[in-house]
Specification:
alpha+beta; two-stranded antiparallel ribbon; two-stranded antiparallel sheet; elongated
């Protein structure tokens, strides 16, 4: 869902709908499933150290990883 907040230049804030938020959780589970069922040699890796990249919940404001999947309806997915 887009909410315009500036006419010049045209800008909008984007927020997932309830259905989109539900899908984001499903996609996260699918990503975890995929990492367990793929060849580790084909896994995307961090270019600096070579460690396989993982999907994680992260708070950009606090600069911290979140242990559990967010359940609050106002969580924004990017």
């Amino acid at each position: 869902m887009a909410r315009p907040y500036s006419q010049r230049p045209p800008r909008a804030a984007y927020q997932l709908t309830t259905e989109g938020a539900e899908l984001a959780g499903a996609l996260r589970l699918l990503a975890h499933w995929g990492t367990r069922h793929t060849d580790r040699a084909d896994t995307p890796r961090h270019p600096t150290c070579g460690t396989p990249i993982e999907a994680r919940w992260y708070c950009p404001t606090c600069d911290q990883l979140v242990d559990d999947e967010p359940s609050h309806p106002q969580v924004h997915y990017v």
